[in-house]
Amino acid sequence: MDELDSALLRLLQQDGRRTNRDLAQELRIAPSTCLERVRSLRERGVLLGFHADVDLPSMGRGLQAMIAVRVRPPTRAVIEQFQAFVARMPEVISVFVLTGTDDFLLHVAVRDTDHLHSVVLDKLTERKELADVRTSVVYDHLRKTVIDPV
Amino acid sequence: MDELDSALLRLLQQDGRRTNRDLAQELRIAPSTCLERVRSLRERGVLLGFHADVDLPSMGRGLQAMIAVRVRPPTRAVIEQFQAFVARMPEVISVFVLTGTDDFLLHVAVRDTDHLHSVVLDKLTERKELADVRTSVVYDHLRKTVIDPV
DNA sequence: CACAATGGCCGAATATAATTCGATGGAGCG
DNA sequence: CGCTCCATCGAATTATATTCGGCCATTGTG
User: Fold this and answer.
1) Is A46 close to B59, i.e. CB distance below 8 A?
2) How does pLDDT run across B5-59, given as a tens digit for each residue?
3) CA atoms within 13 A on the CB side of A112
4) What architecture (CATH level 2) is domain A59-138?
5) Would you call A54 and B140 a contact, using CB atoms and an 8 Å cutoff?
6) Cα A19 from Cα A21, distance rounded (Å)
7) Contact residues, B window 42-101, toward A, CB-based 8 Å cutoff
8) Does B113 touch chain A (CB under 8 A)?
9) The whole model's pTM is what?
């Protein structure tokens, strides 16, 4: 994990489709070296993968919300069961399993407020283990690249 | 936005580095057609970009937390100023701007609990506009692909 | 200090993929 | 029924990824 690795991770987080040649040129190394570095980062598990980022409104999911959920009882079995359940919901795009007051934070992307309402009332509150739900609409979501402190 | 576009978005969300030939073969279309489809999705703004996914523990950021923040007064000026501030913090990897009780949800990745403590006490609570903070440690974070209902 | 071993890097050669573009044919329309 | 339009196609071209043998520089060793 030297400066070269950090630089590669930074560039690939910004644009996961930059060509190997292009990366090599920017970092002033040979393409073969660059390729080997990226392969090594993958093999070491530092670089987990590459993903396309889609525009939610274009997919008919113009409304995002965060749903804080508390389950009861907060046992391993109940938590794992609930996690498996929400992971199957198409409206859920990300699940945070938490300590603290809430057990889960669900990041959902839905069509509109009716859809959001239906997700909370028809899908979530139907679950017997669900103890508490608080929904917040997301106005804006800013994602950043992770920078290596090295 | 037909089934072909949806399939492409699904595949590219799963693996943003699949080759065009590979995608074309799976979808039973010509590579040139596949390329044109992807180009169109980009031009229409449906496909926003491609990003590498890094392993946070490998980057010395093995601890994640969600920090709920309320600012005072909750005016546009204060909110925008605070958003700009947290966007600059290297520990913050994602910022949600919310309605409801909390104004912000900060997804942070830090070295350890000392680091987390220092982020909250030394960086956040130093801000005069900050009215309330609640920190929850993230045990697990599951990301999903967005599936087009079409 | 001399020397061998190691590992990262390089560049040329090869394999593979992206990209272009003219041709084709089916869908929609007059 | 014939015309136009446009998505799709495949071949040709261009660009890129990948391999691999050799070359330092660094490190460890007698």
Assistant:
1) yes
2) 999 999 999 999 999 999 999 999 999 999 999 999 999 999 999 999 999 999 9
3) 1
4) 2-Layer Sandwich (3.30)
5) no
6) 5
7) 44-56, 58-61, 66, 83, 87, 90, 92-101
8) no
9) 0.94
Question: What phi, psi does B34 have (nearest 5°)?
Answer: -60, -45
CATH node for A3-43: 1.10.10.10
For every residue of B81-110, DSSP letters joined together read HHHHHHHH-TTEEEEEEESSS-SEEEEEEE
Residues by CB within 7 A of strand D: list them.
A 19-22, 31-32, 35-36; B 4, 28-33, 36-37
Q: Do A17 and B50 touch (CB under 8 A)?
A: yes
Q: Which residues of chain A are in CATH 3.30.70.920 domains?
A: 59-138
Provide the shortest C-alpha distance from residue B15 to chain A (in Å).
Answer: 5
Instruction: Specify the domain boundaries for CATH 1.10.10.10 within chain B.
Output: 3-43
In this complex, which of B46, B66, B145 lies closest to A55 when CB atoms are compared?
A: B46
Q: What is the pLDDT of residues A57-74, one digit of tens each?
A: 999 999 999 999 999 999
Task: Answer yes or no: are the C-beta atoms of B3 and A48 closer than 8 Å.
Answer: no
Q: Does B76 score more than 90 pLDDT? A: yes
pLDDT digits 0-9 by tens, B84-141 = 999 999 999 999 999 999 999 999 999 999 999 999 999 999 999 999 999 999 999 9
**For the structural domain made of B57-138, what CATH number should be given?**
3.30.70.920
Contact criterion met (CB < 8 Å) for A102 and B144: no
A43 near B82, Cβ under 8 Å?
no
Q: Strand, helix or coil at A49? A: strand
Q: Looking at residue B150, what is its pLDDT?
A: 67
